[in-house]
Structure formats: structure tokens, C-alpha cells
Write a structure and sequence with these properties.
single chain, about 90 residues, mainly alpha, 2 domains, about 55% helix
């Protein structure tokens, strides 16, 4: 039985995941994440925290800490890749 391209898929999971086929989806996800990050930094101004140290009490500390931790993990992965990398024909020898 031929399936027309404009016909809706019959499986419920396929219908739920059709948004992922849209070519604009990565851009939308990026913009939603940017808005969420800005909202969380703005909430840092409003929200009262009980900090244990003076460094922790600085504005946007957790935002900066998270970004630095993420950048460290990415750079550590690059170093590990150089150490653990094998040639394409490593197992053919």
C-alpha cells in the first residue's frame, strides 16, 4: 500500500515526533535555551540565597560556575581523545 507524503502517520508515537522533522527545530531549541538562560540569570537577582561563602554570594555565580565546569569537561574530552585515539586500521594489524 503506497503512503502519500501529505498523509498523517498512523502510529501515535510517529505523530508525536513529527516536530523533529522540521528543519527549523534546532534553531527553535537554541532560542528557547537562550531565553531560559536569560530568565535564570534574571531570577538570580530576585531570588534570595543563603550563601556559605562570599564567592558564592556574588551575582550569577552559579551561571559562571556551570559554564566553566562545562568548558572544562569539553576541553578534558579533547585531551582524552588525543591520548586514547587509535588509527583507523589499528585492529586490522
Amino acid at each position: 500500500m503506497a503512503h502519500k507524503s501529505d498523509e498523517k502517520p498512523k502510529l501515535w508515537l510517529a505523530r508525536r515526533l513529527m516536530w523533529a522533522d522540521n528543519p527549523n527545530t534546532p534553531d527553535r531549541i537554541f532560542y528557547v535555551l537562550c531565553v531560559l538562560c536569560v530568565a535564570l540569570v534574571a531570577a538570580d537577582v530576585i531570588h534570595h540565597r543563603h550563601a556559605y561563602s562570599d564567592l558564592e554570594a556574588t551575582w550569577a555565580f552559579y551561571c559562571m560556575y556551570g559554564f566553566i565546569a562545562f568548558a572544562f569537561v569539553v576541553q578534558a574530552g579533547r585531551v582524552l581523545r588525543m591520548i586514547l585515539k587509535r588509527d583507523e586500521d589499528y585492529y586490522d594489524r
